[in-house]
Design goal:
- By secondary structure, the chain is α+β, with helices and mostly antiparallel strands.
- The protein has a domain of 69 residues: Kinesin-like protein Kif23, Arf6-interacting domain (Immunoglobulin-like, Sandwich).
- It contains 23 helices and 26 strands.
- Bound molecules: adenosine-5'-diphosphate (ADP) and magnesium ion.
- Keywords: ATP-binding, Cell cycle, Cell division, Coiled coil, Cytoplasm, Cytoskeleton, Isopeptide bond, Microtubule, Mitosis, Motor protein, Nucleotide-binding, Nucleus, Phosphoprotein, Ubl conjugation.
Amino acid sequence: NKSGKTPRRPPKKPSNNQKDPVGVYCRVRPLGAEDEECCIEVISNTTIQLHAPDGLKANRNGEFKETQYSFKKVFGIKTTQRELFADVAKPLVEDLIHCKNGLLFTYGVTGSGKTYTMTGSPGQGGLLPRSLDMIFNSIGPYQAKRYVFKPDDKNGMEVQNQVDALLDRQKRDSQTSVPKTPTTRRIDPEFADMISPEEACKAGEVDEDSSYSVFVSYIEIYNNYIYDLLEETPFDPIKPKPPQSKILREDQNHNMYVAGCTEVEVKSTEEAFEVFWRGQKKRRIANTQLNRESSRSHSVFIIKLAQAPLDADGDNVLQDKSQVNVSQLCLVDLAGSERTSRTRAEGNRLREAGNINQSLMTLRTCIEVLRENQMCGTNKMVPYRDSKVTHLFKNYFDGEGKVRMVVCVNPKADDYEETLLVMRFAEMTQEVEVARPVDRPICGFLTHRLEERGGPVDGVLNQLLQSFHPLPPCEISGPNDDVTLPRLIDALEKRHKIRKLMVEEYNKTANMLKSVLQEQDSNLLSKENFIQEQRGRLGEKDKMIQNQKNEIDRLEKKSKMLEYKIDILQKTTNIYEEDKRSLQHELESREQRLQREMSEKRRMETRMQGIVTDAKLKWEKECERRVNAKQLEMQNKLWVKDEKLKQLKAIVTEGKTENRQPQRPSREKDKVPAKRSVSPSPVPSSLSSLEPIYNFSQTVRPDPHFPRPGSVSVASCISEWEQGVPHSRRQGSQSPPDSRKRAQGLPDSLRRRRGRCWAREVPVQPAEVDLEETGHWVSRTGPLVRPLHRRSHSAGGERWVDHKPTTNVDLDTVLQPNIPNAIKVNAPNEKALSKCDKYVLTHQEFASDGEIQTKLIKGEVFKTRGGGQAVQFTDIETLKQENPVAASRKRRSSETGPDGEPMERNWTNVETRCSVAVEMRAGSNLGPGYQHHGYPKRRKP
Ligand code: ADP
Ligand code: MG
């Protein structure tokens, strides 16, 4: 009979994919003491900044500098409890009223204000009393009677019938001394001023056609045991029973619940808070009795809101369990998050503390895994079961619901390190997303209820009834009163008629309405079908989106992988580039070295070439010089031989004509027989007629009238020339053959020098008899040059050095050689030589007959390579004066030497003088030198 209604469904697994991150709020409590060091600064309403206290300079992670953390909202020290509630808990309460679950917990170090935030203090109620107050403010008028809703033992809610509920109420009243009137407030000073009436808060929209009931539970999780703080245990003062721990179970909707946990139905804020306070007291007592520290336990206050539609009467809740909707809000005050070392735990308590820590660790791990699963698309198992706290709230993260966390921090410096850990956990938690609870619109049952209650129809009937004429007086005056009854009958009949009419009308209207409603119903059904259809489509779309999301996740992972690979490749590239650079560098340095070596080589080469060319040049010059010298020597030799031949020819010719040559060496004669005919006749006829005293041919043509055994023949003279021994020397020596031997026995150097001089530069021509020349001398008019040997020089251009040694004897001869333009010297001097090109030496000596014989030895001056002058003797003119008184004359000239040797022997010695003349070097002030060819430094111009 209730099939026409839209069914109310219990909360199921989320069918949507919308998710919201866990809302994390940060609350900074004021410092305990004004002068305490502060390490937290609120820099905006979403960000705080931590800075290391002065005492803690270097953290081992190097995190001693400032760090910033951002949250959904940051509440500074001046934030009031009301402000905090408005931002953090109010939306959760709204959700609760709209059938959505919520979880709110406070997290932080002991003393950071978790309990203050959750519970508050008198005058400054925390989130818990404010939430309760808001709930009752919102649903107050629509609450169901006590015990109408009754929790089953499987986290569900039943609806009791009126009678059972009434019986339960009576039972409760009889058991407790609680005053029946709910308006009477029993004020507990401990929580009296938790909420001031002015601050009352109310949910925006409440389904007024539902009936509500609030149930609260209060549990404590200590050392991974769950204790029910609201359990009524008969108090045994003698042997107090230790509290029994509870276990967790999963209901048919896969929600976790504490099995057998007391759920107290509360009808007002005060009552609810009283229950809470009762639990709080119990907790305190238990902690004291069991020597536990309250800060090491988690306290969970669960507010359950059951709502169900009212029945047709509008008085009672619909007796249909499936129509009951239960939502819950968990308010959790977590244990202090500090590490074990911080507490003064000893012995057993240390173990407990470790466990407590363990449950918070598990919470951390769960959050981490959730985050990883959500961010990386992995499907790791979240270890909810590892601790009771996480297990209990598994469904909030797995299923749907709104999760919020208030991170409490104490800005004091001592807490800095712990606060850092809290901040990291909080930041991580923000990244976890929780499925958004499905929005279940509140369905109005107004029309339906109007129909059920018949409200408006009844009203119309009443109005109609009231508009009828009143019934006529029906008091019968007597037995004969015939008027009253028929009048009444009439009126009633009229009314009956009207009624009939009205019933008809009513039926008609009802039928009409029915048909309209049926129509509407079918409309609604079709709409519902449509909605269902749309839902299906939505599901498909959702699936598609999910698939695409998965694809995106996959691609993201792939891109991450690729990025990683790129990173590695980049690094590898960098390494290779580094290698390349170093290799290039090495290459460059090697090339530089190579170039250096090459240039060194080139330099060496050029140097070597220079040396080679120098040496080559030197040797070439040397060779040239030697060749030249050799050539000259050979020429000279040739020339000498030529001359000898000429002379021989002349002699031969002469011998032929006169036929009285005395000691002619057969050798000479054999040598030059061919040239005899060629020689000219040297004796002109005119000569004999001229001057008888002059006998030019004294040596070569010995006078037949003065035959002398010691006279020098021409042949011997030649042989002497050949041997390089001057006539004068030979003459002074003891024996002629010995003199040759002596000449050969001369010191090597001298012999060589002499040979050289004679051979190269002084190819002295043997004396020659030339009558024609004599004629020139006699006439004193012609030039001093023998026409036969005339050179290319013009006569006027020749200058002569006239060398007359001082030892010469003035002979008063008539014929004196007259050389014009001559430089007269008595010792050979270079200056004079350099100016002239001809040289003549007037030389006196004794002839074999004892007479003085004058020889004019002529030569040509030419420059030597050494820079000196050399004289090449070309002619010897012999002048002889004959005196009949020969002996006296002879003696006179030879008497000068004390040892009988002629004084001028050395000076008149031709060889010596020539040698001196020849070897005079240019610029020399040392006198005659011997080695004028010794320096090949100066080059030929
Ligand atoms: P926790 O529960 O984190 O151990 P409490 O809530 O017990 O810390 O706070 C410790 C002390 O600090 C209490 O005396 C409390 O009154 C005070 N307190 C905490 N937060 C604040 C706040 N925001 N404003 C004023 N006092 C606070
Ligand atoms: Mg506390």
